[in-house]
Amino acid sequence: MQQQEKDRLAALDAAASQQPDPMTSYRNQMQSALKQAPLNHGAAYARTMLAVVQQLPFEVGGWRVGGISCRDKGCVINWKRQDGGTFQTLLDQRKSVQFQDMGSAMETVPLLETPAAPQSTPIDVAKFYMTAGVRMQALDDLGKGGKGEGKLMAVALGKVEPLVPLPPELKNRANKVPALAKGSWSMQGHLAFLDSVPGLMERAGNMTLDAVEVTLNDKKPEFTAKGTFYVQ
Length: 232
Known about the structure:
alpha+beta, elongated
């Protein structure tokens, strides 16, 4: 009986030794998740995307841009017909438009090829708040405008969450885990502030851009930019 118990314990020890170390597995999972993150969508990518918006003529041949939606590899432009505009007047100047109905058309403008090399990298969380975070607060204060005016700029930071959820078996070792984390950020405001987006991203060095939306109207042209920041 004693020998059987020894054999059973030895088998258990052998099985346990073959199990991967949970800390090593978690580190590997975080590195894998980081490799899949769009770290090449940093400040240079943002400038490439915003160049499409800034170089676009907002009125062409009796047609006017109603909105722009940029993400991933291109920007979709929504054209609205004004008095005097025809299918021909728009097509003469924007060769790739696709007409939707009598008064609207869509055009897709591809972005230049984005280099695969990372443009952003995780930084210390405290450093992020002291550099980019402080700048974002300043922009948010600047955008409040005067009395009776609408807000010219609104900036938001989301809660920091682990890049990979901490497994239960490491809960008691959380302070020893070299965690990587991410959070969301957004900027919304008058189109005149659009250059603040790549400027902020260059300052931080750990932010990526997911999407930019632009709305044009007679009262106030506005943009919304959204992305992710990475910390450790």
